[in-house]
Amino acid sequence: MNTPRQRPTALTLLAILANLIGVLSAIAAAAIAWWENQTYLSSQEATLLGLLGAFGVLQILSSFALLRLDSAGRSLQIFTSGAWLLGCAIAAATWWGTPQLPMLVIAIPGALLAAISLSYLASAEVAGVFDDAGIEASSARGLMFMDIVIAGFLLLIVYPMVRSTTARGTQAQTMTTIRSIATAAESFARDQKHFPEVRSFAELQGRLSPTYLRNMPLQDGWKNDLRFESWRTPDALAADHYAIASGGKDRRFEKRSLRDYSDRGTTDLDCDIVFRDGKFISYPAELQVKEAAQKSSDPDSLFKEATSLYWSNQYDRAIPLFIKYLKDRPDDALANARLGVSYCNVSRFQDAIPLLQKASALDKTDYQSRNNLALAYDKVGKPELGIAPAREAVALEPHNAVVNNTLGWVLLRARKDGEAIAPLALAVRLDPNEVQPHYNLALAYHGVGD
């Protein structure tokens, strides 16, 4: 009776490690390919995942053959080890000097194992252990059982957890992208007095980038196109409402128009994500709860929430949030300006004046705060103090009808009717369809007896 040859302990360990790496590589390649294909899988990604899966399968086959002392297993392990080292060298040469180079750190353990495998299996002593007869397969059956246990654990427990985490991460990324575009659209509205009126998201990108958002994305975290709508209320001259949305993981929008969505949260991974007029109205509830929990300690989130309320004309709710934000960042010109405007809109003009003064001092190009400061001085009965900031606003924006009208108005209120005529006449020429400059100009002419 033939006595089974003894397998070296080092060879057994090598076979077990090769098997483990093979199982993990094959399952990872299959899982990533399936998940990425739910959104978009490029040909390059598909090729890399295919190579990773093939490497895993070859490692599994070689591990069983190594345990049986089959010479084919030795040859296969030498081949896969050499291929792994060659692949690492090619990747290092390709990615040298690029941000992708640090990714090769994850390949270092595999490269070390490959180098050890080549050195160990190429030795004459080990080569003599192998022949084509093989040995008893009990160890191989044990290794196969271990593979089944590992695969079951990964597929039934680890994969669902990773899938859920990845999905939430994609949703969070999409919400961040939408919020950044919304902030840019609101900045556009602050300057132009209306939201962008466009027919496509690409056209919106042309309006906002690079002035308001340097690199504006066109797609959500699932690599699907985002949507934008703006519209007018019946008494508005231009768009005064807007919405930005993602169709979610399933790419399908539940409503025909973004105006039709109601405020709701859901745990559905396929839910549409809709941001309208400063806040999310359709969103993953779990992420929104986490975001709300962070707002009290995160100044940036606090500012965004205050700004959302500001653009929704909820000034009484925005005021305490701006105050809290300014305790951490007192020299934020925009926050001072918006808090000042909020005070004006709830008729607290005296409280608004120091904030608008500070905003003007912090931002030498802010004509709007100077214009609002002039009007606030008029509201508290001191129009003569509003003349200087109104002149500064006109100097910054000489062809703006609004600031010229404000200068004319405060001059008129300060009983300087003759000086008021020139800026009011210019405001009429710049915007002949606006009624207020015509009326104020008539008052100025009446005041000088003309």
Q: End-to-end span in angstroms? A: 130 Å
How many separate helices? Answer: 17
Shape: elongated
- What is the residue-averaged pLDDT? 79
- What structural category arises from helix and sheet content? mainly alpha
Low-confidence stretches: 132-138, 289-295
Main pleated sheet: 5 strands, mixed
Describe this structure in words.
- With 450 residues, the protein is mainly alpha-helical.
- It folds into four domains: 9-128, no CATH class; 172-295, Glycoprotein, Type 4 Pilin (2-Layer Sandwich); 296-364, Alpha Horseshoe (Serine Threonine Protein Phosphatase 5, Tetratricopeptide repeat), CATH 1.25.40; 382-450, Serine Threonine Protein Phosphatase 5, Tetratricopeptide repeat (Alpha Horseshoe), CATH 1.25.40.
- It is built from 17 helices and five strands.
- A five-stranded mixed beta sheet has the order 1-2-4-5-3.
- β4 (273-276) and β5 (279-284) form a beta hairpin.
- The longest helix has 55 residues, at 138-192.
- The protein is elongated.
Q: Keyphrases for this structure?
A:
450 residues; mainly alpha; Glycoprotein, Type 4 Pilin; Serine Threonine Protein Phosphatase 5, Tetratricopeptide repeat; 4 domains; 5-stranded mixed β-sheet; 17 helices; 5 strands; 5% strand
What is the topological layout?
Elements lengths: L8 H28 L6 H25 L3 H25 L12 H14 L2 H4 L10 H55 L8 H8 L18 E5 L9 E6 L17 E3 L6 E4 L2 E6 H11 L3 H13 L3 H14 L4 H13 L3 H14 L4 H13 L3 H14 L4 H13 L3 H14 L4 H13 L3
Parallel strand pairs: 3-5
Antiparallel strand pairs: 1-2, 2-4, 4-5
Helix pairs in contact: 1-2, 1-6, 2-3, 3-4, 9-10, 10-11, 11-12, 12-13, 13-14, 13-15, 14-15, 15-16, 15-17, 16-17
